[in-house]
Structure prediction request, 171 residues.
Amino acid sequence: MLLGKDSFNHKTIIVNQDFIVRLIALGKYTEAYQLLITITQTKKEVCSLFNLALCYYYGEIYQQTIYTLDEVLSLLTITPRNQALLPVDKDCKTILSKQNQSECYQSGITDEYFSYFPEIVKDSILRIKVDCYLHLQQWDRVFEVGNAIRNKGYKNVNNAILLAESKSHKN
Prediction:
């Protein structure tokens, strides 16, 4: 699927979402950023903005990451039409438990991924925001955002809340 089209130096930029996700997976955040910033100037879409937020996050530009993720949340409409069709058996829950301990929430997304897993994308947004607030030492925001998904067993969220609790008690 095409992410966007824009004029830049008299050339048309047409970018495939899979290409952006590959760039991010390869650690090519600068290149992904350059494409995404051009695209998002004219068209605001969930996947483009989420992937742009990942670029800001990688660059440790935490306030802009939060701002961009808030833009994504404002566009988010979750219709679990496809997710309900997918199996959730014992093995799936075991894999999910392991996955919740990883940093896969920092991976790029496509429209197709979002269409099947909208709740996971929303949780990823909140997990990244928790990380940003942690880096910014905004303990009250760590609690506020983290508590919304605390019961899901995400390692980064639970660790951030524990750290925020210890820092809050010292003050």
User: Anything to note?
Assistant: The longest strand covers residues 2-8. The two ends are 50 Å apart (CA to CA). Residues 1-10 have pLDDT under 50 and may be disordered.
